[in-house]
Amino acid sequence: MGKFSENISDEHRDFINGQHIFFVATAPLSAEGHVNLSPKGLDCFKVLSPNQVAYMDLLSSGNETSAHTHENGRITFMFCSFEKLPNILRLYGKGYTVLPDDPKWKSLSEHFTIYPSTRQIIVADITKVQTSCGFGVPLFSYEGERSLHFDWAEKKGPRGLEEYKKEKNLRSLDGLPTPLLERI
């Protein structure tokens, strides 16, 4: 049975810090809209306080999280233990995008390694934390991070990354605008 709390405890933070992957889920308000669920890796997720988290988001082929949180703020993070003791932790909250030209960028970016392909930082104010058993989650062994994204970004170069962002990251799959669209 799941246990709920209103804050991220030290125990929750330690569990989060021990995971190599997390998942982020968002959805538009439209009933016909697509729910988005994205896996994230690297050391890009930070607990900023008992009720606020952020992750550094790399340029990719879509920008659903940014578009959905821009429209309605709803966001859920999930962490699963694939090693050692079974556990699942979910963080529910309201999220928003912070872009490099935002005044909040300077203080937030200090928590992360910022790469040439860093697109934005997603921040979420957490209203509910849930833990559950994770008994059905299989065991996996962590082998390491992939370098494919960074190889791709280096090959694209700064100008190519900006062009790619304009081509792929201004609207969601359902046509919702992202904060990037407002900056162009």
Describe this structure in words.
- Strands 1, 2, 3, 4, 5, 6, 7 and 8 form an eight-stranded antiparallel beta sheet that branches.
- The chain is of the alpha+beta class and 184 residues long.
- The mean pLDDT is 96.
- The protein has helices at 10-17, 64-71, 105-109, 148-168, 179-182, and strands at residues 3-5, 22-26, 36-40, 45-49, 52-58, 74-80, 88-98, 118-132.
- It has a single domain (3-138, 147-182), classed as Pnp Oxidase, Chain A, CATH 2.30.110.
- The protein is globular and about 45 Å long.
- The chain is 25% helix and 32% strand.
Summarize the structure.
With about 180 residues, this protein is of the alpha+beta class. It has helices at about 10-15, 65-70, 105-110, 150-170, 180; strands spanning about 5, 20-25, 35-40, 45-50, 50-60, 75-80, 90-100, 120-130.
Which characteristics define this entry?
8-stranded antiparallel beta sheet; 184 residues; single chain; alpha+beta; Pnp Oxidase, Chain A
- Give the termini separation: 47 Å
Q: Determine the fraction of residues in helical runs and give it as a percent range.
A: 25-40%
Structural class: alpha+beta
Beta strand count: 8
Number of alpha- plus pi-helical segments:
5
CATH class assignment: Mainly Beta
Return the average pLDDT rounded to an integer. Answer: 96
Give the name of the CATH architecture.
Roll
> What is the H/E string?
EHEEEEHEEHEHH
Largest sheet geometry: 8 strands, antiparallel
Instruction: Give the tally of structural domains.
Output: 1
Write the CATH homologous superfamily. Answer: Electron Transport, Fmn-binding Protein, Chain A
Outline the low-pLDDT stretches.
none
Principal-axis shape equals: globular
What radius of gyration results from the CA coordinates?
Answer: 17 Å
CATH structural fold name: Pnp Oxidase, Chain A
Percent in strands: 25-35%
